[in-house]
Amino acid sequence: MRLRHLLIFFGVSAAVLSAEVSLPKVLSSHMVVQRDLPVHVWGKAAPGQSVTVAFRGESRTVDADALGHWNAYLRPGAAGGPFSMTVMPGPAREQTAAQAAMTLDDIMVGDVWVASGQSNMEFPLSRASTAAQDLPNSANPQIRLLMIRKRSADYAMWDADTDGWTPSNPETAKDFSAVAWYFARDIAGRQHVTIGLIDATWGGTVGESWVRLTALGEDAALAPIFVSRGKMTDDAADADAEQADEKRQQEEAKAAGKPAPQFPWHPPLNSWGPGLLWNGMIAPLAPLPIRGVLWYQGESNSALARVHSYDRVMRTLIEDWRRQWGIGDFPFLYVQISNFKSTPREDWAELREQQVRTLAMRNTAMAVTIDIGNPDDVHPTDKLDVGLRLARAARALTYGENIEYSGPMFRQATTEAGSIRVWFDHAKGLSAKGGVVTGFEVAGRDGKYMPATAKVEGASVVASSPDVPAPVSVRYGWANSPECLLFNSEGLPASPFTSER
């Protein structure tokens, strides 16, 4: 065993000693450097080799450590550009020929946002309902794009699988996150800075796959996640055989001219494991200073066995991402899942409530989309409004604009004679579209909810039901695909809620 370890050690050491100075692929020409934060440049070289980085008239020389890793930090600066960055290798002990300097061109200093989550964040601009108008006009020098390819890994990757940064244009934007692109267009136009977007998404994935394994393991309340993973791996052999049989049945039906049989969806092992997507897609980004994160995920956590732990998963994710980036409590702006009929095996109402609870964390905001979903399609095509609602949150929380950024949010419920009054925050100009308030239910001490008649009174709603003479609790939009018509004066929808917390 010791001999094997020594051979591995010397093999790795020899490889590092002969290695040229290299940069991770997330550092490339056309990139965006985060303004007002130290500029971090990192890479690999031979152990002890010196590397000089020059950027905006400043240079810094550092030495690679015993494993060949080096890190250089340069002074922060204001937005601007374009700039060039030069990385000059110094002499290495076993270097036989001088390595040429590396130059990265067309670097802008602005704001970098990471867009992550599952399919509704992954949803490309080319498929958005507004694509015909906006994709041909997507060439925008103020938007730079970095697409991270899907990759799961058992341990944290040093570099991401990507082709590097590129300016936005019809070719590069067509497969990029539509939500993120619309967010960037709005912010860049208002702030007059270049926005760098990083698309690190994977459709159909659960939240815990995006969280570092150690962070999940530190919370005993999240133990069921590991039990669920264990069951998936225990059943893997049977699942493979089952899917092979399903494929055979579908092929036989097709050959016989019969309708193809339908089978349950099988979660993929490679993207559902705790920590796997953090390791493969997010860990390589953490050394890069950013302005904040855009997040759209949750649909895959709506299953009855997972839904009640979602707030805990998201708090762990947000806390640990901030810890790993090490640049403070950066803005974490996320989308509440919209309306979809789904199945009784999923509880989208509870998932939305879990997302509301996550707002207790500092420097977070939630874009409510209950009014712009598609009951029959889990992938609604209106991504423009989603991006603009996230941009509103950024404008208020991050960029200091004095604007309303949230729809009405439940504050408290107070009982009155035979009715219950609901008070909201963000409720200026509270009204119901079409004048009819729908979606409210009330319950007495027996906990049985009944449909309620409701009316708007100022910044509150009064709800009552003849079947519940003494209501003690109230909820709104409590269904997978409810009809929700309550808005504030900015046209932002009220979030579904329950007063039972």
Furnish the topology, listing elements before pairings.
Blueprint: H1 2-17, E1 32-34, E2 39-44, E3 50-55, E4 58-63, E5 69-74, E6 80-89, E7 102-117, H2 119-122, H3 131-134, E8 140-147, E9 165-168, H4 170-173, H5 178-191, E10 195-201, H6 213-217, H7 223-234, H8 236-255, H9 269-272, H10 276-282, E11 292-296, H11 310-325, E12 332-335, H12 348-357, E13 364-367, H13 384-397, E14 409-416, E15 419-425, E16 431-432, E17 440-443, E18 449-451, E19 453-457, E20 460-464, E21 473-476, E22 486-487, E23 497-498
Structural write-up:
Helices cover 26% and strands 25% of the residues. Strand 12, helix 12 and strand 13 form a beta-alpha-beta unit. It is α/β, with parallel strands linked by helices. Helix 5 crosses helix 13. The strands form five sheets. Strands 1, 3, 4, 6, 7, 8, 9, 10, 11, 12 and 13 form an eleven-stranded mixed beta sheet that branches. It has a four-stranded antiparallel beta sheet with strand order 14-15-20-19, with no helix packed on it.
End-to-end Cα distance:
56 Å
Q: Globular, elongated, flat, extended or rod-shaped: what is the shape?
A: globular
Q: Any idea what the radius of gyration is?
A: 26 Å
Note the beta-strand portion: 25-35%
Number of strands: 23
Low-pLDDT regions: 1-18
- Major β-sheet profile: 11 strands, mixed
Q: What do the pLDDT scores average to?
A: 93
Assign a percent range to the helix content. 25-40%
Discrete helix count = 13
Question: What class do helices, strands and sheet pairing give?
Answer: alpha/beta
Tags for this entry?
eleven-stranded mixed β-sheet; alpha/beta; globular; 13 helices; 501 residues; disordered N terminus
